[in-house]
Design goal:
Elements (H helix, E strand, L loop, with lengths): L3 E7 L6 H9 L8 E7 L6 H11 L4 E5 L5 H12 L4 E4 L5 E2 L3 H12 L3 E9 L17 E4 L3 H8 L10 E4 H6 L11 H12 L2 E13 L17 H15 L7 H23 L4 H14 L7 H8 L4 H8 L7 H11 L4
Parallel strand pairs: 1-2, 1-4, 2-3, 6-9
Antiparallel strand pairs: 4-8, 5-9, 6-8, 7-9
Helix pairs in contact: 7-8, 8-9, 11-12, 12-13
Length: about 350
Protein backbone atom coordinates (compact mmCIF):
# COMPACT_ATOMS: atom_id res chain seq x y z
CA UNK A 1 0.00 0.00 0.00
CA UNK A 2 1.14 3.53 -0.75
CA UNK A 3 2.05 5.84 2.12
CA UNK A 4 0.17 8.97 0.98
CA UNK A 5 -2.79 9.56 -1.31
CA UNK A 6 -2.22 12.94 -2.97
CA UNK A 7 -5.31 14.50 -4.56
CA UNK A 8 -4.75 17.12 -7.25
CA UNK A 9 -7.70 18.85 -8.99
CA UNK A 10 -6.93 20.00 -12.54
CA UNK A 11 -8.83 22.33 -14.84
CA UNK A 12 -7.23 23.61 -18.05
CA UNK A 13 -3.87 23.06 -16.40
CA UNK A 14 -1.82 21.99 -19.40
CA UNK A 15 0.94 24.54 -18.81
CA UNK A 16 1.48 23.50 -15.18
CA UNK A 17 1.46 19.71 -15.31
CA UNK A 18 5.07 18.99 -16.30
CA UNK A 19 6.38 21.50 -13.76
CA UNK A 20 4.24 19.95 -11.02
CA UNK A 21 5.33 16.42 -11.92
CA UNK A 22 8.99 17.44 -11.80
CA UNK A 23 8.39 18.52 -8.20
CA UNK A 24 6.81 15.13 -7.43
CA UNK A 25 9.64 13.22 -9.10
CA UNK A 26 12.05 15.12 -6.85
CA UNK A 27 10.30 14.09 -3.62
CA UNK A 28 12.71 12.32 -1.30
CA UNK A 29 9.96 9.97 -0.16
CA UNK A 30 9.99 8.54 -3.69
CA UNK A 31 7.11 8.83 -6.13
CA UNK A 32 6.56 5.10 -5.69
CA UNK A 33 5.31 5.84 -2.15
CA UNK A 34 2.68 8.25 -3.44
CA UNK A 35 -0.75 7.47 -4.81
CA UNK A 36 -1.28 10.58 -6.98
CA UNK A 37 -4.92 11.06 -7.91
CA UNK A 38 -5.35 13.67 -10.63
CA UNK A 39 -8.98 14.71 -11.03
CA UNK A 40 -9.53 16.36 -14.41
CA UNK A 41 -12.47 18.68 -13.79
CA UNK A 42 -13.91 18.65 -17.34
CA UNK A 43 -10.99 20.57 -18.84
CA UNK A 44 -11.50 22.03 -22.31
CA UNK A 45 -7.81 21.92 -23.27
CA UNK A 46 -5.41 18.97 -23.48
CA UNK A 47 -5.09 18.57 -19.70
CA UNK A 48 -6.64 15.09 -19.65
CA UNK A 49 -4.38 13.82 -22.43
CA UNK A 50 -1.26 15.20 -20.73
CA UNK A 51 -2.24 13.61 -17.42
CA UNK A 52 -2.75 10.28 -19.14
CA UNK A 53 0.77 10.50 -20.57
CA UNK A 54 2.14 10.83 -17.04
CA UNK A 55 -0.12 8.00 -15.86
CA UNK A 56 1.41 5.75 -18.51
CA UNK A 57 4.88 6.71 -17.27
CA UNK A 58 4.02 5.90 -13.63
CA UNK A 59 1.08 3.46 -13.80
CA UNK A 60 1.70 2.20 -10.25
CA UNK A 61 1.69 5.68 -8.75
CA UNK A 62 -0.66 7.86 -10.82
CA UNK A 63 -4.39 7.60 -11.32
CA UNK A 64 -6.30 9.99 -13.61
CA UNK A 65 -10.01 10.51 -13.03
CA UNK A 66 -11.95 12.38 -15.70
CA UNK A 67 -15.12 14.36 -14.92
CA UNK A 68 -17.68 15.06 -17.62
CA UNK A 69 -19.04 18.09 -15.78
CA UNK A 70 -17.08 20.89 -14.13
CA UNK A 71 -17.73 20.95 -10.38
CA UNK A 72 -14.89 23.23 -9.28
CA UNK A 73 -12.20 22.24 -6.78
CA UNK A 74 -14.59 21.14 -4.03
CA UNK A 75 -16.22 18.49 -6.20
CA UNK A 76 -12.88 17.35 -7.62
CA UNK A 77 -11.40 16.95 -4.15
CA UNK A 78 -14.43 14.99 -2.95
CA UNK A 79 -14.09 12.66 -5.92
CA UNK A 80 -10.42 12.18 -5.10
CA UNK A 81 -11.27 11.11 -1.55
CA UNK A 82 -13.42 8.30 -2.97
CA UNK A 83 -10.42 6.82 -4.76
CA UNK A 84 -7.84 7.33 -2.01
CA UNK A 85 -6.51 4.17 -0.33
CA UNK A 86 -3.37 5.20 1.60
CA UNK A 87 -3.29 5.70 5.36
CA UNK A 88 -2.59 9.41 4.92
CA UNK A 89 -4.20 11.98 2.67
CA UNK A 90 -2.81 15.19 1.14
CA UNK A 91 -3.92 17.81 -1.34
CA UNK A 92 -2.00 20.00 -3.74
CA UNK A 93 -2.83 22.58 -6.38
CA UNK A 94 -1.53 21.78 -9.83
CA UNK A 95 -0.02 25.26 -10.23
CA UNK A 96 2.06 25.03 -7.04
CA UNK A 97 5.22 23.11 -6.12
CA UNK A 98 6.62 21.49 -2.98
CA UNK A 99 10.02 21.34 -1.36
CA UNK A 100 11.64 17.99 -2.26
CA UNK A 101 11.51 16.76 1.34
CA UNK A 102 7.96 17.94 2.11
CA UNK A 103 6.03 14.67 2.03
CA UNK A 104 8.80 12.68 3.68
CA UNK A 105 8.95 15.12 6.60
CA UNK A 106 5.17 15.25 6.97
CA UNK A 107 4.93 11.46 6.94
CA UNK A 108 7.71 10.97 9.47
CA UNK A 109 6.03 13.42 11.84
CA UNK A 110 2.61 11.79 11.38
CA UNK A 111 3.94 8.32 12.13
CA UNK A 112 6.35 9.13 14.93
CA UNK A 113 3.89 11.37 16.76
CA UNK A 114 0.79 9.32 15.81
CA UNK A 115 -1.04 12.45 14.68
CA UNK A 116 -4.37 12.98 12.95
CA UNK A 117 -3.02 16.08 11.24
CA UNK A 118 0.42 17.45 10.38
CA UNK A 119 0.83 21.05 9.26
CA UNK A 120 3.86 22.62 7.65
CA UNK A 121 4.35 26.25 6.81
CA UNK A 122 4.01 27.65 3.32
CA UNK A 123 5.04 30.78 1.50
CA UNK A 124 3.77 32.73 -1.47
CA UNK A 125 6.26 32.79 -4.28
CA UNK A 126 6.39 34.51 -7.66
CA UNK A 127 6.97 31.71 -10.20
CA UNK A 128 9.84 33.67 -11.73
CA UNK A 129 11.62 33.75 -8.35
CA UNK A 130 11.17 30.08 -7.56
CA UNK A 131 14.77 29.08 -8.30
CA UNK A 132 15.98 31.55 -5.70
CA UNK A 133 13.82 30.09 -2.93
CA UNK A 134 14.84 27.78 -0.13
CA UNK A 135 12.83 26.34 2.74
CA UNK A 136 13.25 28.34 5.93
CA UNK A 137 12.17 27.63 9.47
CA UNK A 138 9.61 30.06 10.85
CA UNK A 139 10.37 29.03 14.44
CA UNK A 140 13.22 27.13 16.02
CA UNK A 141 11.15 24.22 17.32
CA UNK A 142 8.21 22.24 15.98
CA UNK A 143 5.33 21.64 18.37
CA UNK A 144 2.39 19.37 19.18
CA UNK A 145 -1.22 20.23 19.96
CA UNK A 146 -3.19 17.64 21.96
CA UNK A 147 -6.92 18.27 22.24
CA UNK A 148 -8.93 16.46 24.90
CA UNK A 149 -11.51 19.01 26.07
CA UNK A 150 -13.70 21.85 24.78
CA UNK A 151 -11.35 24.59 25.98
CA UNK A 152 -8.41 23.15 24.07
CA UNK A 153 -10.66 22.57 21.06
CA UNK A 154 -11.65 26.22 21.02
CA UNK A 155 -8.02 27.25 21.34
CA UNK A 156 -7.11 25.07 18.36
CA UNK A 157 -9.98 26.43 16.27
CA UNK A 158 -8.80 29.97 16.96
CA UNK A 159 -5.18 29.28 15.96
CA UNK A 160 -3.89 30.74 12.72
CA UNK A 161 -2.61 27.62 10.96
CA UNK A 162 -3.74 28.61 7.44
CA UNK A 163 -7.14 27.36 6.27
CA UNK A 164 -5.69 26.00 2.99
CA UNK A 165 -5.49 22.22 2.60
CA UNK A 166 -2.30 22.00 0.56
CA UNK A 167 0.16 22.42 3.48
CA UNK A 168 -1.26 19.54 5.50
CA UNK A 169 -1.23 15.77 5.86
CA UNK A 170 -4.38 14.07 7.21
CA UNK A 171 -5.01 10.67 8.67
CA UNK A 172 -7.47 9.36 6.08
CA UNK A 173 -9.56 7.46 8.64
CA UNK A 174 -10.26 10.74 10.46
CA UNK A 175 -11.63 12.19 7.22
CA UNK A 176 -13.70 9.17 6.20
CA UNK A 177 -15.06 8.20 9.63
CA UNK A 178 -16.28 11.74 10.29
CA UNK A 179 -17.53 12.31 6.73
CA UNK A 180 -15.43 15.44 6.26
CA UNK A 181 -16.02 16.87 2.80
CA UNK A 182 -15.83 19.98 0.63
CA UNK A 183 -18.81 22.08 -0.49
CA UNK A 184 -19.16 21.94 -4.26
CA UNK A 185 -19.61 24.60 -6.90
CA UNK A 186 -18.05 27.35 -4.74
CA UNK A 187 -14.63 28.83 -4.14
CA UNK A 188 -13.21 29.19 -0.59
CA UNK A 189 -14.19 25.55 -0.07
CA UNK A 190 -11.10 25.11 2.13
CA UNK A 191 -12.79 27.23 4.83
CA UNK A 192 -15.51 24.61 5.22
CA UNK A 193 -13.28 21.52 5.09
CA UNK A 194 -10.69 22.90 7.50
CA UNK A 195 -13.37 23.91 10.01
CA UNK A 196 -14.64 20.33 10.14
CA UNK A 197 -11.09 18.98 10.50
CA UNK A 198 -10.52 21.34 13.44
CA UNK A 199 -13.35 19.60 15.29
CA UNK A 200 -12.15 16.04 14.68
CA UNK A 201 -8.34 16.17 14.88
CA UNK A 202 -7.26 15.24 18.41
CA UNK A 203 -3.50 15.41 17.93
CA UNK A 204 -1.75 17.85 15.61
CA UNK A 205 1.92 18.33 14.80
CA UNK A 206 3.11 21.70 13.51
CA UNK A 207 6.26 21.56 11.43
CA UNK A 208 7.82 25.02 11.38
CA UNK A 209 9.33 24.81 7.92
CA UNK A 210 8.15 26.50 4.73
CA UNK A 211 7.83 23.35 2.66
CA UNK A 212 4.94 24.25 0.36
CA UNK A 213 5.44 26.94 -2.29
CA UNK A 214 2.15 28.59 -3.19
CA UNK A 215 2.85 30.15 -6.57
CA UNK A 216 1.06 33.41 -7.31
CA UNK A 217 -0.13 33.44 -10.90
CA UNK A 218 -2.06 36.42 -12.25
CA UNK A 219 -4.93 34.23 -13.41
CA UNK A 220 -5.33 32.26 -10.14
CA UNK A 221 -8.85 31.86 -8.70
CA UNK A 222 -8.45 33.86 -5.52
CA UNK A 223 -6.40 36.58 -7.20
CA UNK A 224 -9.00 37.41 -9.86
CA UNK A 225 -10.60 40.74 -9.00
CA UNK A 226 -12.59 41.00 -12.23
CA UNK A 227 -15.55 38.86 -11.23
CA UNK A 228 -16.69 40.29 -7.89
CA UNK A 229 -19.59 37.83 -7.64
CA UNK A 230 -17.10 35.04 -6.90
CA UNK A 231 -16.17 36.88 -3.72
CA UNK A 232 -19.70 36.37 -2.37
CA UNK A 233 -18.84 32.67 -2.04
CA UNK A 234 -16.86 33.71 1.04
CA UNK A 235 -20.10 34.51 2.88
CA UNK A 236 -21.97 31.54 1.41
CA UNK A 237 -19.31 29.14 2.70
CA UNK A 238 -19.54 30.74 6.16
CA UNK A 239 -23.28 30.06 6.09
CA UNK A 240 -22.78 26.46 4.99
CA UNK A 241 -20.38 26.00 7.90
CA UNK A 242 -23.01 27.13 10.37
CA UNK A 243 -25.65 24.84 8.86
CA UNK A 244 -23.30 21.85 8.89
CA UNK A 245 -22.05 22.46 12.43
CA UNK A 246 -25.65 22.69 13.67
CA UNK A 247 -26.52 19.47 11.86
CA UNK A 248 -23.59 17.71 13.55
CA UNK A 249 -24.50 19.05 17.00
CA UNK A 250 -21.24 20.99 17.24
CA UNK A 251 -22.39 24.57 16.87
CA UNK A 252 -23.94 25.41 20.25
CA UNK A 253 -20.82 24.67 22.27
CA UNK A 254 -18.82 27.09 20.11
CA UNK A 255 -21.63 29.48 19.22
CA UNK A 256 -19.91 32.70 20.29
CA UNK A 257 -16.79 31.92 18.28
CA UNK A 258 -18.72 31.24 15.08
CA UNK A 259 -20.99 34.25 15.55
CA UNK A 260 -17.92 36.44 15.94
CA UNK A 261 -16.26 34.83 12.95
CA UNK A 262 -19.31 35.32 10.74
CA UNK A 263 -19.66 38.99 11.67
CA UNK A 264 -15.99 39.74 11.11
CA UNK A 265 -16.04 37.92 7.77
CA UNK A 266 -19.15 39.85 6.70
CA UNK A 267 -17.38 43.13 7.50
CA UNK A 268 -14.20 41.96 5.76
CA UNK A 269 -16.18 41.03 2.65
CA UNK A 270 -17.95 44.39 2.54
CA UNK A 271 -14.69 46.30 2.98
CA UNK A 272 -12.94 44.09 0.42
CA UNK A 273 -15.59 44.74 -2.25
CA UNK A 274 -15.43 48.48 -1.71
CA UNK A 275 -11.65 48.60 -1.61
CA UNK A 276 -11.00 46.54 -4.74
CA UNK A 277 -13.95 47.73 -6.85
CA UNK A 278 -14.27 51.29 -5.62
CA UNK A 279 -18.04 51.06 -5.41
CA UNK A 280 -20.73 48.78 -4.03
CA UNK A 281 -24.40 49.08 -4.95
CA UNK A 282 -27.29 49.75 -2.57
CA UNK A 283 -28.94 46.55 -3.78
CA UNK A 284 -25.88 44.44 -2.97
CA UNK A 285 -25.57 45.88 0.56
CA UNK A 286 -29.27 45.18 1.17
CA UNK A 287 -28.88 41.66 -0.21
CA UNK A 288 -25.91 40.93 2.08
CA UNK A 289 -27.74 42.37 5.08
CA UNK A 290 -30.72 40.10 4.42
CA UNK A 291 -28.41 37.08 4.37
CA UNK A 292 -26.90 38.11 7.70
CA UNK A 293 -30.33 38.58 9.30
CA UNK A 294 -31.44 35.20 7.97
CA UNK A 295 -28.76 33.50 10.07
CA UNK A 296 -28.82 35.91 13.00
CA UNK A 297 -32.32 37.46 13.37
CA UNK A 298 -31.17 39.26 16.53
CA UNK A 299 -28.00 40.44 14.83
CA UNK A 300 -27.80 43.83 16.54
CA UNK A 301 -28.08 42.16 19.99
CA UNK A 302 -25.07 39.91 19.46
CA UNK A 303 -22.25 40.66 21.90
CA UNK A 304 -19.69 41.09 19.13
CA UNK A 305 -21.81 43.70 17.38
CA UNK A 306 -22.43 45.58 20.64
CA UNK A 307 -18.71 45.64 21.43
CA UNK A 308 -17.76 46.75 17.92
CA UNK A 309 -20.28 49.59 18.01
CA UNK A 310 -18.74 50.85 21.25
CA UNK A 311 -15.43 51.27 19.47
CA UNK A 312 -15.54 54.46 17.46
CA UNK A 313 -11.98 54.43 16.17
CA UNK A 314 -12.97 52.63 12.98
CA UNK A 315 -15.51 54.57 10.95
CA UNK A 316 -16.05 51.74 8.47
CA UNK A 317 -17.07 49.17 11.09
CA UNK A 318 -19.40 51.60 12.86
CA UNK A 319 -21.07 52.76 9.63
CA UNK A 320 -21.36 49.20 8.25
CA UNK A 321 -23.10 47.97 11.42
CA UNK A 322 -25.32 51.05 11.71
CA UNK A 323 -26.63 50.14 8.27
CA UNK A 324 -28.72 47.42 9.93
CA UNK A 325 -30.53 50.08 11.99
CA UNK A 326 -31.39 52.52 9.23
CA UNK A 327 -32.57 52.71 5.66
CA UNK A 328 -29.83 52.07 3.12
CA UNK A 329 -30.07 55.38 1.26
CA UNK A 330 -27.71 56.95 -1.26
CA UNK A 331 -26.43 59.21 1.52
CA UNK A 332 -25.67 56.19 3.70
CA UNK A 333 -23.92 54.45 0.82
CA UNK A 334 -21.74 57.49 0.24
CA UNK A 335 -20.67 57.48 3.89
CA UNK A 336 -19.95 53.75 3.73
CA UNK A 337 -17.82 53.95 0.59
CA UNK A 338 -15.87 56.99 1.77
CA UNK A 339 -15.12 55.32 5.10
CA UNK A 340 -12.99 52.90 3.06
CA UNK A 341 -11.96 55.19 0.21
CA UNK A 342 -11.66 58.72 1.65
CA UNK A 343 -12.17 61.68 -0.64
CA UNK A 344 -8.93 63.01 -2.07
Amino acid sequence: MKEISLIVPCYNAIKYIDHFMEALEAQTIGINQLEVIFVDDASTDATFQKLCEWEQRYPESIMVVHCEKNGKQGAARNIGIEYASAEYLAYADIDDVMDPCMYEKLLIAAKQQECDLVVCRSKKVNPHDLLNQDSKRTKENDWIIEIDNAEKRLGFIQMDLNIAVWNKLYRRSMISENQVYFPEGLIYEDLFFTTLVQHYADKVYVLEEELYHHLIWEESTTGDFKDWKKKLDWLYVEELKIIELKKRGIYDEFREHYENQYIINYLNLLEYLIYYYGFISTELVQYLQLRVIKFFPEFMQLNTVIQLLKRDENDFIRIALEGFMQEVTSEYMERLVYSVLPRE
